[in-house]
Design brief:
nine-stranded mixed sheet; Rossmann fold; 40 helices; alpha+beta; 4 domains; tt1808, chain A; globular; six-stranded mixed sheet
Length: about 950
């Protein structure tokens, strides 16, 4: 590009003015001819608009030969429905769009300005803030920050000139700001007034559309409930509103993508608004719905109850003409629509005695929001499952594959799988045609549209897309709205990059509504049964009986719900039907068991994202045993960064293949950042191999995917050298003071709320000072305030007094992802967020044990047992504390040396707490750091660590 600019004289201001003057003179001389209706837009672009931007230094014709992916100007030729005529880019970033018209067409009356701004405003991040409309006879340039307003299309106008004004000094200055060199130097922002630059803010497109979608649903729900107060079943009201809204949006998508006649929906609304209000708009809309159904078929427009209701025509017209108008659905990808609908599904319509309201679903309130699956997660799971299934296969082989998302939501994973299938088929036919050099066979010709003339790219026909969709894609969701939205999203995906119309396939046999985990044998009845919505997988009519009978699905993918609230009937059923749920029921683990046991055929793939406690929770041993015994753990991708905002547990992608895993080597992929994942960077991604046979032999023990061979060897060495801590100390959990119904006498709610056994002073002999976990640090006790607890049987879980009365004991914080312990010689009570360690014998010294526990080596060892580093809800569990290996065979001199270092450390921390000056605290802190290093070095020596082993410990993620 640089070479082209250096040799192109039009990159100079002088050449621009000379060329522009020639263009203006030519236009003026033959103006009458150029304003004729038979002078086309294509001619105007060729004769005037292209030369104008070339004079501004833009390589409109791609003389540099960079190709469409890298060139600075993308020019759409021929039919450009839904696409801007010109896209101007610098270093791959779009800077502004241009909508072109023939000179005889008025920019104002044609809506060209509004269309240009829509292109910019509908561009997902990174945002595009500028757009232009021109027929050369006139040139208008806009700030497209604001949401396009059909009533006020001129909002945002920065400058506007007619051709006979182009050569004025002001116009030349303004137009030169659009020169390639000027834009690259940041000229566009300078066109805005300082106040406009400072105030410019823009909500992402998905947030805007979600807000609009939610508002329209509420408006429709209230309007329909006013007209039909008997429609008081929330499920029915949700359904009719959803179907009607889906139809409006689908029509707009189809219109914007050229499948249906552009503007037809708006024309119906405008005719009603400007004409006879006595006739309800629904009459015309129903005719259009029938016409669309006849042309496209599908599920969205089949006969539905929403057609029998009295819709508010004024509200419908407002939403069609004003609400939907700013959106260009040709630009909004179905993946983005899916992410919007995923959040939209988090709300529901609730009916009160007098009105309809929209509110969060209970499970969404509990979870703190809806978190849709990012596209990079979907793409990776699809690549590792569907991608592996189809690799090297022919279309005939692929048509037999069955891909399932058993909790499909808005359909993001099914869209991802469908997209992968479409890309593979397109590439397959294109490559085969190139190899044969003679074009395509007769059969291929039926499956493919004509190749694009300019770029020679093949497109699958809509008929073939429909066949792939019908053959390969399957989903289930308990929410009827999710099922409707998934179908609509798949239809929209099918229509992408397709010309002309085709019948949409019926998807009622592909996407089904029901509870994937609960079959019809549940005992629930009435409203409870309807809410649970049982689903029978084996049924050939209502389920997927033929697929299950043939062995199951080839791939099961998705992001199952987790942390879902379950009613008693559901818990009872799930506990009776699923054998691997040994701890608190969590729906994602039931999905995992269900998929492996009943849904995936032998050799098939499982790919989902869910939280990592199934690997690290000591009480989830049954599910670990089940997984490693019945599948190959192909890969676990653990994310060190939050994939979902506000979600406090780490998440990971789990890819499994059903089948024999003898000798199988599993891969753990540790990803430090999103940037590293997207770039697949060697510096931010670590791959660790694991022998699955060892996992299987461990009988459900915690699986630490972060340990490589050297780390595992060091952990085994430490365990072999040391005695278990529970053989040296009694390990006890602290007091639980309050719980309704516990204690003697049983505590009431008032007792719990008023905390009557707490005091800020020693109110009686029974009141004793107590510690919380936050009151201690390594080698220090520092209560934040005077705090006493009346100790006795009235407490909910008082624990034996001997736990606290020992002359010396170690107290350890329970919450956190590392060991924090100190020595207590004042007989404090401790709450249940602490562990209390009381010596069983007199050797080794408690101070010796404390030094080992607080050492870097023992912290490292703890993380081999429970790899919760950095997790918000991490806990140091008693079962792991008991397993800490304490070396007891050290010679007395080293034992005493460590005891002395710990005594000094305790004293330094006590001094630091007592001193007032910052300088003294800093001096003591420096001594503490040195003392820590000496303790660590001595513990390394005690356990006989080599230089390489020390490096393993000290390289641990902090």
């Amino acid at each position: 590009m640089v070479c082209w600019l250096m040799t192109n004289p039009s990159s100079t201001r002088e050449h621009f003015e000379k060329e522009l003057a020639a263009l203006v003179a030519r236009f003026e001389k033959h103006r009458a001819d150029y304003l004729r209706s038979d002078y086309t837009e294509a001619e105007g672009r060729l004769h005037f608009i292209n030369p104008l931007f070339e004079a501004l230094g833009w390589d409109v014709q791609d003389k540099a030969g960079l190709g469409r992916a890298q060139c600075d100007v993308i020019v759409e030729r021929g039919e450009t429905i839904g696409k801007p005529d010109y896209t101007f880019r610098v270093s791959g970033k779009t800077m502004f769009y241009v909508e072109a018209k023939a000179p005889h067409i008025s920019l104002e009356k044609s809506g060209a300005a509004l269309q240009a701004k829509k292109y910019a405003w509908n561009t997902p991040e990174p945002f595009v803030y500028f757009a232009a409309a021109t027929d050369f006879e006139e040139f208008r340039f806009y700030d497209a920050t604001a949401k396009p307003d059909p009533k006020h299309p001129q909002i945002g106008l920065i400058f506007s000139y007619r051709y006979n004004e182009y050569l004025t000094a002001r116009a030349l200055d303004d137009l030169w700001q659009l020169a390639r060199a000027s834009v690259a130097a940041g000229s566009l922002d300078k066109l805005l007034k300082p106040s406009a630059r400072a105030a410019r803010q823009r909500a992402p497109l998905d947030q805007e559309f979600l807000a609009d979608l939610s508002r329209w649903r509420e408006q429709f729900a209230k309007a329909i409930f006013r007209e039909h107060p008997d429609l008081d079943d929330p499920a029915d009201l949700n359904n009719v509103v959803q179907i009607f809204l889906d139809r409006l949006i689908f029509i707009r998508v189809a219109e914007d993508r050229g499948v249906l006649d552009a503007g037809r929906l708006a024309k119906i609304a405008r005719a009603w608004k400007e004409g006879d209000h006595d006739r309800a708009m629904m009459a015309e809309l129903l005719l259009y719905f029938r016409e669309v159904n006849d042309r496209l078929n599908g599920e969205i427009f089949k006969r539905h109850r929403c057609e029998d209701l009295r819709w508010d025509s004024a509200l419908v017209a407002e939403i069609v003409l004003e609400g939907l108008a700013p959106y260009n659905f040709a630009q909004i990808g179905v993946e983005l629509l899916g992410s919007i609908y995923e959040r939209y599904l988090g709300k529901t319509i609730r009916v009160t005695a007098t009105r309809a309201v929209v509110e969060d679903k209970p499970e969404v309130r509990k979870a703190g929001g809806v978190y849709y699956t990012p596209k990079y997660i979907v793409d990776y799971i699809v690549a590792q499952t569907v991608g592996k299934l189809i690799e090297g296969k022919s279309p005939e082989q692929i048509r037999k594959l069955k891909i399932l998302d058993p909790a499909c939501g808005s359909g993001s994973f099914l869209i991802g799988a469908y997209d992968a299938l479409l890309e593979y088929h397109t590439r397959y036919y294109a490559e085969r045609a190139r190899r044969r050099r003679g074009g395509v066979s007769t059969r291929q010709a039926r499956l493919l549209q004509e190749p694009q003339a300019e770029y020679g790219e093949f497109k699958l026909s809509l008929a073939q897309k429909a066949e792939i969709l019908r053959n390969n894609i399957f989903g289930v969701d308990v929410d009827p709205q999710a099922v409707e939205i998934t179908m609509m999203s798949l239809y929209i995906k099918m229509l992408e990059h397709g010309n002309g119309a085709a019948l949409l396939p019926r998807l009622n046999n592909n996407i089904k509504c029901g509870n994937s985990l609960i079959a019809r044998d549940i005992a629930a009845t009435g409203d409870e049964r309807a809410r649970i919505n049982p689903f029978d997988w084996e049924s050939k009519g209502d389920g997927f009986g033929e697929i299950i009978a043939a062995g199951g699905f080839d791939a099961v993918i998705g992001n199952p719900p987790y942390g879902a609230s379950l009613y008693d009937a559901e818990k009872e059923y799930l506990n009776s039907k699923y054998c691997c749920q040994s701890y608190q029921l969590d729906s994602y683990l039931v999905f995992l068991e269900k998929a492996i046991r009943d849904l995936i055929k032998r050799g098939g793939f499982f790919g989902m994202i869910f939280p990592n406690p199934w690997l690290t929770n000591v009480l989830q041993g049954n599910i670990r045993k089940f997984v490693v015994a019945n599948t190959r753990v192909v890969e676990i991708v653990h994310f060190r960064f939050p994939v979902f905002p506000k979600v406090t547990v780490d998440t990971e992608i789990v890819v499994l293949q059903r089948g024999d895993a003898a000798g199988w080597q599993s891969i753990a992929t540790i990803v430090e950042s999103l940037d590293a994942f997207e770039a697949w960077s060697a510096t931010g991604i670590k791959h660790i191999r694991h022998n699955q046979d060892q996992w299987r032999k461990s009988d459900g023990a915690v699986i630490n995917i972060f340990l490589g061979a050297a780390e595992k060897a060091l952990a085994r060495k430490c365990a072999r050298l040391g005695a278990r801590l529970d053989s040296l100390c009694g390990i006890n959990v602290g007091i639980k003071p309050y719980q309704v119904g516990k204690g003697k006498p049983p505590q009431t709610r008032q007792v719990v709320e008023e905390r009557i056994y707490d005091s800020n002073r020693q109110a009686s002999k029974l009141h004793r000072p107590y510690l919380r976990g936050s009151d201690i640090g390594r080698y220090t006790i520092a209560p934040l305030e005077p705090r006493y607890l009346k100790y006795g049987a009235w407490l909910a879980e008082p624990r034996p007094a001997a736990n606290f009365d020992a002359s010396e004991k170690i107290v350890m914080r329970q919450t956190g992802d590392s060991i924090v312990a100190t020595l207590d010689t004042r007989q404090y009570l401790c709450l249940n967020n602490m562990h209390v360690l009381v010596p069983i014998g007199d050797k080794p010294s408690l101070r010796y044990i404390l030094g080992v526990l607080n050492s870097r080596l023992m912290n490292w060892y703890y993380h081999t047992l429970n790899p919760e580093v950095g997790e918000a809800l991490a806990e140091v569990k008693k079962t792991n504390v008991a397993r800490f290996p304490i070396l007891v065979s050290a010679d007395q001199s080293r034992h005493d040396q460590l005891v002395a270092l710990v005594e000094r450390m305790l004293d330094l921390h006590a001094q630091k707490q007592a001193v007032k000056s910052d300088a003294a605290r800093e001096r003591l802190q420096r001594e503490i750091v040195v003392m820590d290093e000496q303790i660590d070095a001595l513990v390394y020596e005690l356990y006989g660590l080599t230089k390489e082993e020390i490096q393993i410990v000290e390289a641990e993620r902090k």
